[in-house]
Amino acid sequence: MTGTVEPGDIYSMSTIANRERTNNVIDTAKDATQATVATREARLCSRCVLPDTFPGIIFDDEGVCNYCHRALVEQKLAAQREVARARFDQLLEEVRGRGTYDVLVGWSGGKDSTYILARLLKEYSVRVLAFTFDNGFVSKQAFRNMEKLSDSLGVDHIIYKGRFDVMKQVFNASALGDELYPKSALGRASNICTSCMGLAKSLALRLCIEKNIPMTAFGWTPGQVPLASGIFKSNPQMIRKMQEAASGPMRRLVGDEVVRPYFLEEEHYERPERFPYNISPLAFMVYDETKVYEYVEALGWKRPKDTDANSTNCLLNSYAINIHLDQARFHPYVAELAGLVREGRMERAEAISRINEMPSEKVVNFVTDRLGVPRYKSAR
Ligand SMILES: [Zn+2]
User: Fold this and answer.
1) How far is the centre of ligand 1, averaged over its atoms, from the C-alpha of 63 (Å)?
2) Nearest Cα to Cα of residue 292 among 308, 279, 303
3) CATH code: domain of residue 262
4) Which long-range contacts (CB under 8 A, 24 or more apart) does 267-272 make?
5) How far is the CA of 88 from the centre of ligand 1 (A)?
6) 376 found inside a domain
7) What is the pLDDT of residues 147-206, one digit of tens each?
């Protein structure tokens, strides 16, 4: 017996499949003739939204995927969240007053990290340093939000803007380079996002060690970070491995000296006691996207109009989604959205509409023009 698939369970892959990519240029004339052949409908898991194009996916007789089976049942999760919350409270007391700040918050300006920042300041009264990595594509509205909120919340804020010539090279190589990262990395995010997040996380870690900040918090959603990874102490050996994997391709691309400021150096590894606790509070807080919006909007945060459905701060994301759809044949946010659906934190229909919504062509054009690559044409 094969699982039945409801009409609503299917989303069209035609927008993905009938775009043929040749050095970033799409030949629309060819697309028109190939559409009928290339168009296919993706089958989605009947519980979450992972498509049959997702790496390693298997469906059971009911059409439920192996990722859903592997996931913990909601009850067990709730108990584990409780344990993690208690551990977090205890850790905060432990680190309070130890360094120049208690917590460094990675602040993208998006809704999730803004929510974390505000709650830490308002409910835990810890001393926070907010840290933003500007990749050259942060929405203007996201900057306006940050300016307004850093003032009203009363928080010190560092914006680190990477050299644009370097960002450009890194993102262009990420867009083209299948060899830049192992294929397994593609499951969770696009290559472009992996590069950008690698830089942001590394700079945040470097700052924590240099400024002696014992804890760092990020706004990853429960779909991005599993509960088990919600709290951990950065381990120098593990970090060294991760840094080598992330910095290697960039060093080869732009040179040792250029990427040096973005990654850890020997002097940082010589102070293992300064490696911070790494916290993703949304992994164990009750995460409800609607409530997150309500909370930050009440503080004066406004949703940018120029970002895609899955980002509330970054324009580059629109381009990254298109590239990833072409390379991997599934939406780069599908793993995150599936996780939220599985845990009952997002309606399945909402997740399906997110993976169906294609990024704005205008924004994608803005990004390709700024990156200096040929414009991307979709067959829609
Ligand atoms: Zn599933």
Assistant:
1) 8
2) 303
3) 3.40.50
4) 268/206, 268/209, 268/210, 269/236, 269/240, 271/209, 272/236
5) 30
6) no
7) 999 999 999 999 999 999 999 999 998 888 656 676 666 667 788 888 899 899 999 999
